[in-house]
User: Fold these one by one.
Assistant:
Number 1:
Amino acid sequence: MNSKKPFWEKPLASLDAAEWEALCDGCGRCCLHKAEDADTGAYYATNVACRLLDLETARCTDYAHRKLQVPDCLQLAQGNVDEVRWLPSTCAYRLRAEGKTLFDWHYLISGDRESVHAAGQSIRGWTISEDEAGDITHHLIDREL
Ligand code: SF4
Ligand code: SF4
C-alpha cells in the first residue's frame, strides 16, 4: 500500500536523489541571512538574501556550483534536516521530517510553480540582495525564519 503513495507522502529516508530535490517548494527562504545573537545563540530573521539568489524566481542562480561560490550554503540532506533549527516551519523538508503534509500551495500539490509566490510564502517582493543591503542588523524583520 505504501508504494502507491506519491513520494512527497513517503518517509524522507525512502526518497531517491531526484525525489529529494523535487521536494523543495522553491520558496527561497533558506537563502536569507540570519542574524545570530552571539550571547544567546538565538537567530533573527532578516530580509537580506544571498547574493546568488534571484529575487524574482527565488532560485539560486548557480545551483550546481553553489558550494564553491558560497561555502556556507546549506545543503540539506537526509541526516541534517532535524539539526537545522532555523528552517522555516513551512519548509517541505521540515514538514516531512515532522510527519506533516505539504501545504496546498506547494507545487507538487497545486501543479503550479507560481503557487508558492501567490500564497506569499516565498522571498519574492520583500527581500534585498546582500550586495545592496549593507549591515544586516538593519534588516531584521518580524517574521519567522
Ligand atoms: S526553505 Fe525548504 S522548501 Fe524552501 S527553498 Fe529552502 S529547502 Fe526549499
Ligand atoms: S548559494 Fe544558492 S542555494 Fe546557497 S544560499 Fe545562496 S542562493 Fe541559496
Number 2:
Amino acid sequence: MTTPVTSLVTTPITKPLLQIIIGSTRPGRVGPSVAAWFEAHARAADTFEIEVIDLVDVALPLLDEPNQPGEQKYTHEHTKKWSATITRADAVVFVIPEYNSSINAATKNALDYLYVEWNYKPLGVVSYGGISGGLRAAQAIKQVGAALKMIVMQDTMMIPRVSSMLSEATATSGTAVPLRTLTSTPAMDRSAATLLSELLKLTLATAGLRGK
Ligand SMILES: Cc1cc2nc3c(=O)[nH]c(=O)nc-3n(C[C@H](O)[C@H](O)[C@H](O)COP(=O)(O)O)c2cc1C
C-alpha cells in the first residue's frame, strides 16, 4: 500500500523555507498590509518556515550587472546579497499589485537579476488590485516564472478591490507606512489555505530538483 500524499506533506522532518516577497515599493503602498494578512495564514498553517522579504529593503537598482544572470558572475554586492537571499528559499510567494495590466517594475527587476537561484522553486502568487484582483499581474509573473524555470502554481490568490478591505491608515511619525488590517471574506481565507497546501505539495515533490 502506498503512503497517502496527505501524510507525506504534513510531516516533513524540517519545514521548508517559504519566502513571502513584497513586490510593491511605492510610498503609501498597501503591499505590506496584504503580505501581513497572507503571512498570518502561512504561520497558522505551520507547514513552512517563513521569511518576509520587502523589495524596499532589498533596494536593488535597475539591473546593472554586465553579465547574463545565468552565469552568476555578479559584480555588485547588492546582487550577491540578493542571490544569497533567494538561494536559501525552498518556495516563494510574490505579493504583487497590478500596474497597467501587468506586474510592477520593481518586481520584474528583482526577478531579472537572477536565474539559477529561481530554478525549480515553486512560485505562488497573491495578487491584488481593482475589480480584476490583479489577475493580469498574476498571469504576467507566471509567464516570467516559467522563463526562470520555476514551478509555476496553477492556483492564484486574487484580491479584488483591495482598498475596500483594508482598515483606514493611521498617521505615524517618521516615514514608516503603518500596516492596515485586511478583513478577508471566507472565500479568500479558503483560497489562501488552498494556495499554501498546494504549494507545500509542490515544494516537497520537487525538493530533489533543487538538490535538497
Ligand atoms: C502605476 C499604477 C498603475 C495601476 N494600474 C492598475 C491596473 O492596471 N489594474 C488595477 O486593478 N489597478 C491598478 N492600479 C491600482 C492599484 O491596484 C492600487 O493602487 C494598489 O493599491 C497598488 O498596490 P500598492 O499600493 O501595493 O502599490 C494601479 C496603480 C498604480 C500606482
Number 3:
Amino acid sequence: MQISTKFVQRRYDRIAPLYQAMDRMIDDSQRTKLLSAAHGDVLEVGVGTGANIPFYPLGATVIGIDLSSRMLSYAKRRAREARAQVRLLQMDVQPSPSLQTPSTPLSLHACSALYLTQSRAFLKFDAYSNPTASY
Ligand SMILES: C[S@@+](CC[C@H](N)C(=O)[O-])C[C@H]1O[C@@H](n2cnc3c(N)ncnc32)[C@H](O)[C@@H]1O
C-alpha cells in the first residue's frame, strides 16, 4: 500500500498532543545513553515533539526536521531550553537533495518516516552518512 506524505503529515498533526504525552514512555536514561556522545553537526530526522532535544549536549548543533508543523510546535518549546544549538525545519526527508551533507551524523530515533518507503529511506540515510558506499 502506498501511503502519501500528506497522509502521514495529517496523522502526526492530529496526534501531536497525544504524542507529546506518550514521549514519557521512552525512559530518559535511554535518550541519555543514545545522545550524550553527540557532538558537532547532527541531523535529526523526524524530530517530532523534540523529546530528544534536552538530551543533546552543549556543543552539538542540531538540525531537526519534521513533516508536521504541530509536532514541531512542541519541539520549538523544547528548543528554547536546550543546551545544544537547535534549528527546526518543516520538511520532508524524502525528496531532499539539499540534505546531501555526507559527514553529518544522523539521529533517526523512532522515526516513522520509515512508514513511507522504508528501504528507500534507509538507503538515503546511509548515503548521507557514508558517501563511499555503493548500492
Ligand atoms: C515517532 S515520531 C517522532 C519521534 C521522535 N524522534 C522521538 O524520539 O520522540 C516520528 C516523526 O517522524 C515524522 N516524519 C514521518 N515521515 C517523515 C518524513 N518523510 N519527513 C520528515 N519527517 C517525517 C513525523 O511527523 C513524526 O513527527
Number 4:
Amino acid sequence: MTACLFCAKPAARGPLCEAHRKRRQRAQVLSLPVRERYQGWSRVVECAIGLADASAEDDREFERAADRLRKAALAYAHELEATRSAGGCG
Ligand SMILES: [Zn+2]
C-alpha cells in the first residue's frame, strides 16, 4: 500500500487517501463548468483545500498555503476585472 501524496496516511485507491480523494472529487465537482474564466476560481478552490490540509502545527507550511490562496484569489480578481473591461458578458 502506498502513502497519500498529501499526507502520510495510506492511500485507499490511487495516490490519495480516502479524505483527500473525497476533497479532490469535491473540488472537481465545483470546477465542472470549466470555461476559461473559471480556471482562476478552480485554482482558488485548490488552494483553499491546500490551506485546509496544511498542518496547523507547521507554521511555515500553513503560511505558504495561505500565501498561495491569497495569490490565487488576487489572480482570480484580476481575471474578473480583465473579463469585464474586455466587454465579456459577465
Ligand atoms: Zn491524504
